[in-house]
Design a protein that fits this description.
Elements: E1 4-8, H1 13-24, E2 30-33, H2 39-47, E3 56-59, E4 62-65, H3 67-75, H4 79-84
Parallel strand pairs: 1-2
Antiparallel strand pairs: 1-3, 3-4
Helix pairs in contact: 1-3
Length: 92
């Protein structure tokens, strides 16, 4: 599987939803909780092009977006391929 990074907040239901979907897929990911490490918030904002909401999701170094975009990839059958190879280009 490819590297996955999620910027989250521990109290955010959308963060939990994204993690649940990835858990169901058996995907391993690095979770960066910006409420537990506030210094990572600026990193998240810069990496996501200015987005301040959570979660912010990156798969294989590509910015995916948030929980809705991750679910859209799942609903359109693109998530599985994206998780298996870094060369996949999701059409968000």
């Amino acid at each position: 599987m490819v590297p996955i990074t999620l910027y989250t907040k521990s109290t955010c239901p959308f963060s939990r939803k994204a993690k649940q979907l990835l858990d169901e897929k058996g995907a391993r990911y690095e979770e960066i909780a910006i409420d537990l490490d506030p210094s990572k918030r600026d990193e998240m904002i810069a990496a996501s092009g200015g987005n301040t909401t959570v979660p912010q999701i990156f798969i294989a170094g590509r910015y995916i977006g948030g929980s809705d975009e991750l679910q859209r990839l799942e609903d359109t059958g693109q998530l599985e391929a994206l998780l298996e190879r870094s060369g996949a280009q999701p059409s968000l």
